[in-house]
Amino acid sequence: MPLPRPTDCGATRRKLSTLPEIVEHPNWRKMVRTVQEQREWLDHLQIELTQIPAPTFQESERAQYMADRFRELGLQHVRLDKVGNALGERAGSNSHLVIVTAHLDTVAPPGVPIEVKRNNGRLCAPGISDNGAGLAAMLGIIATLQKTEVATDHSLLFAATVGEEGEGDLYGMRHLFSQPDLCRRTAGVFVLDGSATDHITVAGLGSRRFRVEITGPGGHSWSDFGRVNPILALSNAIAELSRIPLPAEPRASLNVGMIHGGTAVNAIPQSAWMKVDIRSTRAEELDRLTQALEAAVRAGVEQENKRGSGGLEAKVVPLGNRPVSELPESARILQTMREVNRHLGIRSRLECSSTDANIPLSLGIEAIATGGGGSSGDAHTLHEWYDPRGRDLGLKRLLLAILVTAGVLGEPES
Ligand SMILES: [Zn+2]
Predict the structure, then answer these.
(1) Which domain holds residue 136?
(2) 1 in a domain, yes or no?
(3) How far away, in angstroms, is 294 Cα from ligand 1 center?
(4) What's the 248 CA to ligand 1 centre distance in angstroms?
(5) Which residues, chain by chain, have CB under 5 Å from ion ligand 1?
(6) pLDDT of 241-299, one tens digit each?
(7) For tag attachment on the chain, is the N or C end more exposed, with fewer CB atoms within 10 Å?
(8) What is the pLDDT of residues 53-100, one digit of tens each?
(9) CA–centroid distance, residue 283 to ligand 1 (Å)
């Protein structure tokens, strides 16, 4: 498919950068038709890509799949970057960028076979919506722009990113935005995550994750009884954590999500560990809870060292740190989303959550995260489902918002 040339015949083309101008242009009707025509094709791609396992840190096969689709659809400079993000570009008439991203990885653990089943119009499989729906939406947007040969003023960069879920700590996004030149050129970032049109994520929920490990000498459960026990120390610390007051407004959370220790029922363990996730919309609250976690671990170990003969040690190792960030009310991207929603008769609530948008937002770059249309449920479980009915509306909403942000080139000026 040939790429549209922004400046045919060397004549200057009229720039359409308002929503009314864009929806009144004949190109928009072509795009709406294209969105409808590609429904089945998009369902098929979503099934295909969801069936490629992509646990965090093991996204390479799915990244390759996305890069192949980018190439087929005619994007330029298609490549996998140093950390494994799949990238493709669509040149505009200037070098400013509108970036569209969707994360590749899923929470389904390695080794879980993924087979998408159809059930009453729904597609069912782990990761089918999060983020099968986001990745499919990205391909739907690219295909629509390419088929209708719409030319944009700003250039578009599409990125299927690694490391959004679990302990990925947004490393794909961090790498992308570690390039000062790219940051300077970016006019707006659209993060496509999951389904629906009912939310716009405008604030990045901050989170910190830790692995707490307590080690000791260990021993025999009978002959060494009385020695310090790392599991008991860890339990003391957890009991301590459960008593930490958490504010309701601004909301904060502290979760002990994993716990492990010991090797046999008749042995005093040599080690025990837990993983803790702390979240808040305030950086100061994250600091306070981090200190509280460290204090709880110290107190838990001290208590057990006093009971036994001493010798326990504790380490609190940071696993992740997602910055707190917020889009200002006056941001252009938010005004655009609102205007597009009004035009399409959509209501979206503003949300604060932890997504790939945290990274550009924390750098002061305008970004939102939202769904790719359709509906879904049971995210992050083995029963996850996605219903593609209503996907068209989600795609139209994203296309319009992206085009208003990027600007569209109309006919040559006479
Ligand atoms: Zn997601």
Answers:
(1) 8-204+324-412
(2) no
(3) 30
(4) 25
(5) 130-131, 193
(6) 999 999 888 889 999 999 999 999 999 999 999 999 999 988 899 999 999 999 999 99
(7) C
(8) 999 999 999 999 999 999 999 999 999 999 999 999 999 999 999 999
(9) 23
